Q: What sequence folds into this?
């Protein structure tokens, strides 16, 4: 029997490529009901110029996971609305539940789609059918276990999400505006390509922004509303939001831009788009060594280049202290999530600065099994909690620096403490 062990980074890259590809496939399936011929191909090609479907997608996190989940939920909702099919309605409920499980940010997708359905002129026929109620029922059943868990844990993830981004009214309003500006900036490359390829006249622009027929108008509403609603929520709850969170909301952009019958796209223009879509990533690939050097010299936020190095140092300190497996690892949010993936025993995580964020790691179990603690020394909050938990236990110091092409990045000193299992 042949056992193949993959490096985590390889698995991560393959996973994110699969997620982005699946999202593009969903966009392709959505477009078949609104576009044909060259326009359908061009719509898909336009999406490939959005950074969310290539470079940003290479970072595997909750935002990346949402790209295909929002795509499939939107696709199923639109088919359910147009066909009133119980199957599509059930799939829409499952898609909505999956999106919510991916990240609670998906509440804006669900709210946007509901509002789009309410605004649509065919709303009475839709809500009199079984479709919306099947969607609610199936989605509710799929989410029921998680809702029960939320209730049992006092909705701690919601509290953490709000507390982590809490701001003031002025900052929240500015972040909402910046969110829209940033989202428009990310969509700028395909918008420019669209203007060049389609050359829309004023009448075509008006029909693109607010279509005359109901199916296309529903698509526009389903695209715009999930992008606008977060801005109002940011002001209402006084939290800061960032434009990167719009990365899951671009599935319908190609359909919105090209579905107007007043828009014409020639085969020659589509071929030109295809060639550019192929050449663009090749050019960026050629430039990637220079980009990597610049990023390496400027540094990566949240100590991202040191996660694997710190994991090795934590594993070493644990093995030197005890022969028991490491069941728990404690740090603060960013270091905790980054380092945990590389630890050999795959321990459960404990956020020592906000234990509510990791309710599965209860104090009684941690006391019995022991825990490895690690904090970047510049992070005062993390260090304070580490010292409170460590007491008089010995500290292990590790100064880490990653090298790239013989050049080291800025060294950071980390403090590691091993709290051994209770005997």
A:
């Amino acid at each position: 029997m042949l056992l193949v062990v993959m490096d985590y980074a390889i698995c991560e890259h393959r996973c994110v490529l699969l997620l982005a590809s699946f999202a593009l496939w969903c966009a392709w399936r959505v477009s078949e009901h609104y576009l044909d011929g060259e326009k359908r191909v061009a719509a898909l090609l336009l999406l490939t110029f959005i950074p969310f479907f290539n470079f940003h997608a290479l970072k595997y996190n909750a935002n990346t996971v949402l790209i295909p989940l929002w795509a499939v939920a939107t696709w199923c909702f639109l088919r359910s609305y147009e066909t009133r099919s119980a199957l599509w309605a059930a799939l829409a409920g499952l898609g909505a539940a999956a999106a919510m499980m991916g990240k609670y940010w998906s509440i804006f997708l669900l709210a946007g789609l509901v509002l789009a359905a309410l605004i649509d002129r065919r709303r009475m026929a839709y809500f009199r059918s079984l479709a919306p109620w099947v969607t609610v029922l199936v989605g509710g059943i799929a989410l029921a276990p998680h809702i029960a868990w939320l209730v049992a844990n006092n909705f701690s993830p919601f509290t953490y999400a709000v507390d982590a981004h809490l701001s003031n009214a002025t900052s929240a309003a500015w972040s909402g505006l910046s969110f829209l500006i940033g989202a428009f900036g990310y969509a700028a490359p395909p918008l420019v390509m669209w203007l060049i390829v389609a050359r829309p006249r004023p009448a075509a622009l008006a029909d693109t922004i607010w279509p005359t027929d109901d199916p296309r108008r529903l698509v526009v509403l389903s695209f715009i509303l999930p992008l606008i609603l977060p801005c109002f929520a940011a002001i209402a709850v006084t939290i800061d939001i960032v434009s990167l969170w719009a990365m899951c909301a671009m599935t319908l952009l190609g359909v919105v831009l090209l579905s107007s019958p007043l828009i014409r796209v020639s085969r020659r223009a589509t071929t030109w788009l295809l060639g550019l879509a192929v050449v663009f990533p090749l050019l960026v690939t050629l430039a990637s060594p220079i980009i990597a050097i610049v990023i390496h010299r400027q540094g990566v936020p949240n100590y991202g280049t040191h996660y694997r190095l710190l994991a090795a140092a934590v594993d070493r300190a644990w093995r030197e202290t005890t022969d028991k497996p490491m069941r728990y690892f404690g740090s603060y949010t960013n270091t905790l999530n980054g380092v945990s993936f590389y630890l050999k025993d795959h321990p459960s995580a404990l956020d020592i600065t906000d234990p509510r964020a990791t309710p599965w790691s209860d104090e009684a179990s941690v006391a019995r099994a022991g825990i490895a603690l690690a904090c970047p020394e510049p992070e005062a909050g993390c260090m304070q909690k580490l010292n409170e938990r460590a007491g008089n236990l010995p500290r292990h110091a590790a100064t880490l620096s990653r090298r790239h092409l013989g050049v080291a990045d800025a060294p950071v000193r980390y403090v590691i403490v091993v709290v051994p299992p209770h005997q």
Residues 267-298 form the longest helix (32 residues). The chain is about 65% helix and 5% strand. Residues 1-6 have pLDDT under 50 and may be disordered. The two ends are 39 Å apart (CA to CA).
